[in-house]
Amino acid sequence: MKMLKVWPIVLMFALIINLVGCASGGSDNPANNNANQPANTGNAGTTAPEEKAEDPKTEDPKPEPIMDFGGKPLRIGQWWGMDAYLNDEEKALQKKVEEKYNTKIEYVTVTDTTARLITSSVAGEPFADIVMIPLREAFPKLVVEGYVQPIDDVIDLSLPAFSENLVTMTNGKFQDKQYGISEPYAESHGLYYDKTLLQKLGLPDPYELQEKGEWTWDQFLEILKSIKAGGKVPLHVDSESLLASILIYTNEGKIEDDTTNTIALDSPNTMEALQFYNDLYNVHKVIHKDEQVAFGDGGIAFVNGYRWDNLGYVKDKPNDIGYVYFPKGPKATEYVVPYDKMNLWYIPKGVKNAEAVLSAFSELFEFDVKKGKDIKLQKEEPNMKNKESLDTMRKMFDSTYKIINYKAYVGLSDVVEEAFMNIASGKESPTTAIERIKPMAQGAIDVSTKK
């Protein structure tokens, strides 16, 4: 994919010729050269006085980006050994890129890319040329402290591969500058559910409710209470804080407002979500906390899960497993994907050939939005039990993402998660907990944004 403007060779020769002409007093326009010659009035022996030609003012052309790596590697920093997951098409693309850019693709796998980026940059040599970093760790910290560079003037963001990727083009921006990019964003976060268990208990199928627009908190609660009455575990969620965040964003609420850098926990939609959260734990008591009970064999009805969790929750399980959105809250108008694991690619501040890095990187993967999502879905198909679940996953790829990003602000997670834990345990009511922590929460945002 051609991403950057490259000066054609012919134009470079033309500039050289023009500069030579300038050195000899000529103009950069041949027609004007003729017009500036002394006029012949037809009177022999007479010559019009010669006007002093002005030196044309020319601006130095922008240096042409050097797209040849000169044999040096293109270092890609990540934490999961992504080279082991390349398909045949991506491996073929890699060979082409290596030949075209005179480089060798090198995957630098480290446990904590953010920490390594900071320490290597302080030492004067970023450990990679392009690095995957969780969104919550990039903004505002790495921008405010100067560890990553903006790419607005480096990459043509109007290209469809980027402009149509609205998720990353929106979330990769900070203070009106673009820093992060990604392949077509195709992730999911919803509820895996044991279809076989629900059928045995005579309960509605959440997928059917979802498709009719009736998959709501009220319906969800009724199903959870019935599962509990049937002697099974209703719901397991990774953490109390994650469930609180999910409920907030599925009710059109917010934890913080990143456009105004203010805490938003006391907004009406958020408080309604926290009251429902409180009731799930302390009134209806339908949340599971026993890590020993396994999902997929009839013991647990619902677990929250990301796209890749199908390997543990779905594949090779004896029961039929479905996948649906989180249910809609009373204030919601659509199903959304509350997502806390968004990762984007960033160029460290010390990388000097950013144009070449981004150009080469963009040719390693499928950046077309539709094709990229199709490829991701094809990879997941063998791990899912039924077409309905794949249908939901595809819809999630194209849905509104609600980014759970409060951990981006230094100290905010400690304050917010303490409140969520206290609500879940019954130590504080939602109103009391939020009123208590609001000043501290706003202080954490102010410190992080240097307000």
UniProtKB/TrEMBL annotation:
<dbReference type="InterPro" id="IPR050490">
    <property type="entry name" value="Bact_solute-bd_prot1"/>
</dbReference>
<dbReference type="Pfam" id="PF13416">
    <property type="entry name" value="SBP_bac_8"/>
</dbReference>
<keyword id="KW-0732">Signal</keyword>
<protein>
    <submittedName>
        <fullName>ABC transporter substrate-binding protein</fullName>
    </submittedName>
</protein>
<feature type="region of interest" description="Disordered">
    <location>
        <begin position="30"/>
        <end position="70"/>
    </location>
</feature>
<feature type="signal peptide">
    <location>
        <begin position="1"/>
        <end position="23"/>
    </location>
</feature>
<feature type="compositionally biased region" description="Basic and acidic residues">
    <location>
        <begin position="49"/>
        <end position="65"/>
    </location>
</feature>
<dbReference type="InterPro" id="IPR006059">
    <property type="entry name" value="SBP"/>
</dbReference>
<feature type="compositionally biased region" description="Low complexity">
    <location>
        <begin position="30"/>
        <end position="48"/>
    </location>
</feature>
